[in-house]
Amino acid sequence: MTGTETQDEGRLIAGRYRLERRIGGGAMGLVWLAKDELLDRTVALKELVLPATLTAEEAEQARKRAAREARIAARLQHRYAITVFDVADDGGMPVLVMEYLPSQSLAEVLNARGPMPPAEVARIGAQAAEALAAAHEAGIVHRDVKPGNILLAEDGTAKITDFGISRAVDDGTLTGSGALAGTPAFLSPEAARGEKPTAASDVFSLGATLYAIVEGRFPYGDTDNQMALLYAAAAGRVAPPQQAGPLTELLGRMMSVAPADRPSMAEAAAELRKIASPAPAGERRRGVVLWLTAAAVVLVAAVVTTVLLVRNGGDGGTAAPPAPSSSAPAPTSSAQQPTSSTAQSSPATSPSTTTPPPPSPPASAPAGGAPTLDPVQFMREYYGRMPGGTDVGWSQLSPTMQGSMSRAYYVNYWTSMSSFRVVSGPELVGPNTVQSTLDFVQNGRHYHETHRVTLVNSGGRLLVEHDALV
Question: Is 464 helix (H, G, I), strand (E, B) or coil?
């Protein structure tokens, strides 16, 4: 902290906001923790800082733009957006008074944790998209969606901040000196070409942001050459994602070069919600339960009817007295035999003479009982029990693999498939590395993917260590 910033601690702004300590900031401004002494609440204050290269006229225009953008941002009230309470004046410069959220930006989280699991990314993206959709509905375009402008609270809630504020300070991709005003890593192609950003531009930038936190790299490539990034952005040259899993197809549409080919922000939010918590899987499970319950009721009714017919001699009269007890059940005619496949496979014999079939070996082990150490056979068995065998499948993931996702995400990923088959492979392509081409329908969408799976031997059993799209 500089001496000037130390002197600013305790300073009163607009007669009511007392600066306590600096909590963030960058090229466009400083963020302070402050106390609103009028309402007795903690707030965050953002002091805007103008580039020193601006002329007096340019600086005045920037101040007016900043005040205008702040007032526009204050119109948005949404649970997944940082609320702007007030626009105060500090010596002619607008100061944003905002909701204070103990949090880290996604940029900070990405630096600390590395890439995040697709389900978590989809949840964060859905919340940010809902706030942006509400902004678009109100006629507000963010224009600077990036990991640094999405905050992640301690409880995992995502909130987007800085609606148009940093762009208001420098209203262009390049400053008059030719220096870049911020990174173009998340710019839409049209914005990189100097066209006016629109709601579709926000959709692209959110897609690029989600790409970065699920892949751990920029969509236009990892380079410090800002001009090279800008040219790649203008051309829309995006490297295909490798770790996005169920997000892959949606990210591709959100980052379409043509704005008309992108979904609306509301559509993106709905699809991200489905990926984060696939509803169809739960609905199918409920449907199966209801179907089995109904089938059981019908079966019981059929059995009861058959018993009554036997006791009544088939004539529908009053039930006859019970037959004398016997160690064996009374024989029935062939016309009275139940017709269900279960009944046909279980003939009416005395329980003492029925030998139950031996239990089947676990799906994770070959007939001999020992787990296979053949990588190809392991993956053949692994895929063979999917999409329903998630209990065994989860147990066959290494601690590293399990640590990269939640069990709920793993289960949802597989159970949201309505069909699944291996169309080629598995085949060994390296030491303990197996490649397979999979064809499946997930949440109503068709996928054809080649997966390269790396296995590790842990205590005499193979486990999935890494699964990458090829």
Answer: strand
**Active-site residue, 171 included:** no
Domain boundary at 71, 99, 127, which? Answer: 99
Catalytic residue among 8, 90, 144, 374: 144
The annotation places the binding site for ATP at 46
Number of domains within the chain: 3
Asked whether residue 157 falls in the same domain as residue 221, the answer is yes
Tens-digit pLDDT profile for residues 69-125: 777 777 788 999 998 888 888 887 878 899 999 888 999 998 888 899 999 999 999
Strand partners, 428: 434
* pLDDT at residue 223, as a whole number: 67
The answer to whether the pTM exceeds 0.70 is: no
Q: Are residues 231 and 128 in the same domain?
A: yes
215 and 129, same structural domain? yes
3-state DSSP call for residue 150?
Answer: strand
In a domain, 460, yes or no: yes
Half-sphere exposure of 139 (CA within 13 A, CB side): 5
pLDDT in tens, 68-85: 777 777 778 899 999 888
Decide if pLDDT at 456 tops 60: yes
Enumerate the known binding-site residues.
Answer: 46
62 Cβ contact partners less than 8 Å away, ≥ 6 residues apart: 50, 54, 168, 169, 170, 171
Q: Helix and strand tally (H, E) in the chain? A: 16, 13
